[in-house]
C-alpha cells in the first residue's frame, strides 16, 4: 500500500460512490440484530459503524483493512463496545477462528486483493454454516472510463517502463462463480448494477480515484513522474467533461452467497 493520512481522510469526504454501493449491499445481505459480522476492507470504518448499529448490543462487528492509516482513523473516531478494528488482509484471516462469523461484508475491496482465491477460501473458513457473504465491486465484464484512461496514459513513455505491483483485478462473473464454487458457496445471487459516477471536473475525478485507490492511480511510476502523469490523465478527462461535469458509467457486480 502507498496510503497516507491525507488520502485516508480524503476518502471519508469523497467516497459517496462506495458508500452508496455499500448501503445497497447491506440491504441485500440482510444483516439483522445479534449477528457477528466481518467487514473486509473497511477503510476508515463509516459503513462498519453503520453495520454495528444494525446488529446492536447483542451483535458485534470487526473491521479489517491493510491500511494502517485508515484503521487509525477508524479506531480514533468509531470504536464502540460492539465494534472493533484491526489491520488485516483478506487473504489471511488466521486471527479469527473457523465458523466465527454470521456474515462477511466486502464492499469496493475485492479487486485490490492480491490473492483472490485465497481470500474466498478464508471467507468460507471463518463463516458459520449457512453464513452469508456479500461482495460488491466493479465488474470485470465492463471497462469503465477510468480504467481506459489509466491504461492509455501508463502505456506511454516514460511510464511504461515501470510495472505496477499488485494492480486491481476486477473479476468477471464467471471468474467469481468459479472462486465461489471452490470455496464451497453453492448458493448465490448476482445483481449487475449500472451506476453513474459524477464529478465536477477532471481534478475532482482524479482526486476521487486517488483516495479510493490509496494512491494507486499512477500504477508503479515513481513519485517524481506522477505530477506529469496526472496532467496527462487530466487532459483525457477534460475530453469527457461537459457543462454538467463528468458522468462516468460504471457496472457494479453485487453477489450474495451462502456457505454450504
From TrEMBL:
InterPro entries associated with the record: Diverse_substrate_MTase, Methyltranfer_dom, SAM-dependent_MTases_sf
Domain of life according to the entry: Eukaryota
Keywords: Methyltransferase, Transferase
Coiled-coil portions: none
GO biological process: methylation
CDD domains in alphabetical order: AdoMet_MTases
Residue ranges annotated for the Methyltransferase domain, each copy included: 32-139
A Pfam entry, by short name: Methyltransf_31
GO molecular function (one): methyltransferase activity
Protein name stated in the entry: Methyltransferase domain-containing protein
Organism: Xylaria flabelliformis
Amino acid at each position: 500500500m502507498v496510503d497516507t493520512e491525507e488520502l485516508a481522510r480524503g476518502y471519508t469526504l469523497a467516497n459517496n460512490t462506495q458508500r452508496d454501493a455499500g448501503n445497497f449491499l447491506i440491504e441485500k445481505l440482510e444483516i439483522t440484530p445479534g449477528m457477528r459480522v466481518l467487514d473486509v476492507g473497511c477503510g476508515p470504518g463509516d459503513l462498519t459503524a453503520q453495520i454495528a448499529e444494525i446488529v446492536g448490543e447483542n451483535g458485534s462487528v470487526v473491521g479489517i483493512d491493510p491500511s494502517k492509516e485508515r484503521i487509525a482513523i477508524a479506531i480514533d473516531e468509531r470504536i464502540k463496545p460492539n465494534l472493533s478494528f484491526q489491520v488485516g488482509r483478506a487473504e489471511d484471516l488466521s486471527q479469527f477462528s473457523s465458523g466465527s462469523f454470521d456474515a462477511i461484508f466486502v464492499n469496493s475491496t475485492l479487486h485490490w486483493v492480491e490473492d483472490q482465491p485465497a481470500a474466498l477460501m478464508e471467507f468460507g473458513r471463518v463463516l458459520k454454516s449457512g453464513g452469508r457473504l456479500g461482495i460488491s465491486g466493479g465488474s470485470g465484464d465492463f471497462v469503465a472510463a477510468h480504467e481506459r484512461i489509466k491504461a492509455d496514459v501508463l502505456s506511454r513513455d516514460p511510464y511504461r517502463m515501470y510495472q505496477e505491483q499488485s494492480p486491481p483485478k476486477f473479476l468477471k462473473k464467471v471468474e467469481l462463480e468459479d472462486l465461489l464454487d471452490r470455496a464451497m458457496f453453492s448458493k448465490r445471487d448476482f445483481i449487475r448494477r449500472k451506476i453513474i459516477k459524477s464529478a465536477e471536473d477532471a481534478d475532482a475525478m482524479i482526486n476521487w480515484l486517488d483516495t479510493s485507490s490509496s494512491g494507486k492511480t499512477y500504477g508503479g511510476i515513481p513519485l517524481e513522474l506522477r505530477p506529469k502523469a496526472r496532467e496527462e490523465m487530466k487532459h483525457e478527462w477534460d475530453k469527457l467533461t461537459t457543462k454538467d461535469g463528468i458522468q462516468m458509467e460504471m457496472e457494479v457486480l453485487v453477489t450474495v452467497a451462502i456457505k454450504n
